[in-house]
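pasting for ref
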Amino acid sequence: MSDLLTIILAAGKGTRMKSKKNKVLHKIAGKKMINHVVDTAENISSDEVICVVGHQAESVKQAVSSKSIKFKLQSKQLGTAHAVFQAGKEIKDHKGDVLILYADIPLIKQSTLNQMLNHHHDNFADLTIMTSILKNPNGYGRIVKDNSSKIIKIVEHKDTDENEKSIKEINSGIMCVDSKILDDALNNIDNNNEQQEYYLTDIVSYINGKDGRVISYQTEDPVEITGVNDRIALSKAEKKMRKRINERHMANGVTIIDPATTYIDESVEIGLDTIIYPFTYIEGDTEIGVNNMIKPHNHIINCKIGKNNIIINSNLIKNSKIGDECQIGPFAHIRPGCNLKNGVKIGDYVELKKADINVGTKVPHLAYVGDAEIGKKTNIGAGTIFANYDGVNKNKTIVGNSVFIGSNSTLVAPLTIRDNGKTGAGSVVTKDVEENTTVLGVPAREYVKKKDD
C-alpha cells in the first residue's frame, strides 16, 4: 500500500448545534469529537495528518490531543474543495493517496477505513468514495452510476430529478484519491453554483473527464458515516459510541449488568472479571483492575483502582487511587488527591479530601477526613471531623498506626497523633498526642488511669 496523507476537515461553524463553541469541540463518550477522528486517522498508519481549521481555529488546535498533527487555516469558508486546497502544497509534494475525513463524523471505524483503502487499491481506482444505502436518503447527495458501477456524478438532494430521488446510495463525503489527480482537480474546478463555493464532489466530473476510474466503497453500517450537526445527532452518536465501548469491555471479560444504563468513557481501562452494575458512570483516565465489584449509582472520574475491591452503591470518587481489597461506601465522597492502600474500609457518608490512608485502616461512617495522613490498622470513629481549615490556611493531620479515634472527635490541625494513641468520644484534640496515650475532653487532655478506675 502506498504512503497515505490524511486530511481532516474541521473549519465549519456548525450553526445547527446552537452553541458558542465549534461543534467538533463537543464531547462524545468523554472525548472531544475531533479527537475521535484524529485518533482514527493516526491508527490507520497515516504518514501525515493535516487538520484544516477555520471557525474558532485556535480553540480547535488546542483541543487536538495529538502533537504530531499539522494545521492549515481556511480563513474564509468557501466550500469543501477550498478547504482541502489549503493543504495544496502537501498534496502536491505527496506521492501516494490522500484520505479525506470530516471532524464531525466521529463514528467512522479504523477497520472500515482500512477496508476502503484496500478496496481502492485492489480496484486500481483513481478516486474511491465511501457510500451507504439508506431506506430514507432525503437530504443526502445521491451516487449516480453507470452499468459498470463506475460513479458518474454526485447529485445534491435539492438538485435531483425524479429518477435520481429514487436512488438509495448516498455520499458520505469520505474519499480516497490519488494525490496527483487531486492536485490537478483542485486547480481546475470552479465555483459556478448558487452558493459560489468550491465543492469537493466536483472532482468526480473532473476525473471522469480525464478517463479516470471513480468507484464507491459501500459501508455496511450507515451510522458510521452520520454527521453530527445538531444536539439530536450528538445524542445519537453518544449512544452508539457508548454501546461500542461497553461491548468492547464485555468482549474482554468485564460483566456489565445493564449496558443501556452504564456509561463508560472511551479512555477507561477495566480488568477482567470486574462486575459493573447499572447507573454507573466511569470517566476520564480511569484504570480499574481485575475482579472488582462496582454496585449501582457510582460515579468514578480519573481514578486508579486495584483489584478485588467492593464499591457499594452511590459513591463519588474523583482523581484518587484505591489499592486492593478495599470496601467503599455507600454514599462516600472521595475527593481529589486521596490514596487508599490495600484493605481500607470507607463507609457510608464519609468524605475524604487529600487523605493518604494506609493498609487496613477503617473510616466506617459519618466522618470528614481532609488533608490527612493515617497509618495502618487505625479506626476513625463515627462523626469524626478533621478540622483542617483555620480560616486562612489548610493544615495537615497525621495519625499513626493502630490509633483509635472515638466517635464525634474533632481533630484540629496541624496535629499529630502517634502510634496506639486514643481519643475519647466527643473530644476536641488541639495538641499532639504521644504514643500509647489516651486523651479526652474539651479541649482534650491526657487521661491518667487512677488505681481505682
